[in-house]
Design brief:
The chain is an all-beta fold. The chain has strands at residues 2-6, 9-12, 17-24, 32-38, 45-51, 56-58, 66-71, 76-81, 90-97, 102-104, 108-113.
Length: 114
């Protein structure tokens, strides 16, 4: 499985960004796709994930500001990020996992200036 992420960039605090990640290759119909992030000097952490059935899970720090969604027909997951804060600055990684294994995208940088 290959993951192609896009949508990162530089924004000011309070603005919005939308990340996209498309999975290709041998994609199992039952899977979980999500976004993790890693800020400088910190460990990678879960931001949000979503099952193929639409069940979602969010980090407390992004609840109410970020929304994860997916298009199963396109094997694509989206992360709509609103009301961005400087502490959201990180490299965001797309993740795909199924019952057997998981894959990571290449990472996309999100920088939020104050």
């Amino acid at each position: 499985v290959q993951l192609q992420a896009s949508g990162g960039g530089l924004v000011q605090a309070g603005e919005s960004l939308r990340l996209s990640c498309a999975a290709s290759g041998r994609v199992f119909s039952i899977n979980v796709m999500g976004w993790y992030r890693q800020a400088p000097g910190k460990q990678r952490e879960l931001v949000a994930d979503i099952t193929n059935g639409g069940s979602t899970n969010y980090a407390d720090s992004v609840k109410g500001r970020f929304t994860i969604s997916r298009d199963n027909a396109k094997n694509t997951v989206y992360l709509q990020m609103n009301s961005l804060k400087p502490e959201d600055t990180a490299v965001y990684y797309c993740n795909y996992r199924n019952i057997r294994t998981q894959y990571w995208g290449q990472g996309t940088l999100v920088t939020v200036s104050s």
